[in-house]
Amino acid sequence: QFPFVVAVDGPAGSGKSSVSKAVARRLGYGFLDTGAAYRALAWHAEAGGVEPEDAASVISCLASFDYRIGTDPAGYRVHVGATDVTDAIRDPQISSVVSLVARVPEVRTHLIELFRSIIAAEQRPGIVVEGRDITTVVAPDAPVRILLTASEEVRMSRRAAELTGHDAGKTGEQLRARDRADSKVVDFTNAAEGVTVVDSTELDFEQTVDAVIAVVESVS
Ligand code: C5P
Q1: Is 140 annotated for ligand binding?
Q2: Which of 17, 19, 33, 38 is the best mutation target for the ligand 1 pocket, counting ligand atoms within 8 Å of the beta carbon and taking the most?
């Protein structure tokens, strides 16, 4: 199978994005953050004046959704058409509406196809793909499938430390609300059969990267 796929799922604030990116760099693999695509679609819908609750209008946005992303873990930028949205899609406003967009089945089907084509086009020997449904839906046949978890308390405090200037309590409540909404659509809190759980509650960043790489090396 080519490229070698490392599938990583986990809840918001588990650190899966930064950990997956570091793992990709160490292994010389590509990196794909699937949450960025759902965020970019939420951004595109807002830019077009579409209410994120309005599923039919969100679906109609897919036709003009020109999503561009590279898989180089070192120079990661996200574009919609000619607009660089890398920073804009991290805005708390986008975080608060992205679940509404991601729950629409037509959106998921469309983006899953897109992810599979990006994976198939990868030129490096492997690719680390992270999200909520990678181990179960996007790449269930991946040779390495990992669920990255951490206690809720640790996830909240890591995210609060990232977002200096934001109210930590409000951020925590937003994170919990997003996990609740997302887990109605895909189960990323229980490991599916054959999925290895990496619990980072007691690990620092480098130790978590090492733990994920150890899982990859045990397979490859
Ligand atoms: O990973 P991140 O927090 O950036 O994901 C943003 C949102 O995209 C999630 O809250 C979820 O609604 C959606 N998502 C998804 N399936 C994925 C990745 C993300 O539904 N594989």
Answers
A1: no
A2: 38
Q: In the structure encoding, which two tokens stand for residue 22, read together?
A: 């570091």
User: Helix count (H) and strand count (E) of the chain?
Assistant: 8, 8
Q: pLDDT per residue over 61-104, tens digit each?
A: 999 999 999 999 998 899 999 999 999 999 999 999 999 999 99
Cα–ligand 1 centroid distance for 216 (angstroms)? 23
* CA-closest candidate to residue 13, choices 213, 178, 141, 187: 178
In this model, does residue 170 exceed pLDDT 80?
A: no
In 138-187 the beta strands, taken as DSSP E runs, fall at 144-149
- The pTM is what? 0.95
- Please name the residue whose Cα sits nearest to atom 10 of ligand 1: 99
CA of residue 120 to ligand 1 center, whole Å: 21
Distance from the alpha carbon of residue 201 to the mean position of ligand 1, in angstroms: 21
pLDDT digits (tens, 9 = 90+) for 80-90: 999 999 999 99
Return d(Cα 48, Cα 34) in angstroms, integer: 22
Query: Which atom from ligand 1 is nearest to the alpha carbon of 178?
Result: 10
The torsion of the CA quartet 125, 74, 39, 128, rounded to 10 degrees, works out to 30
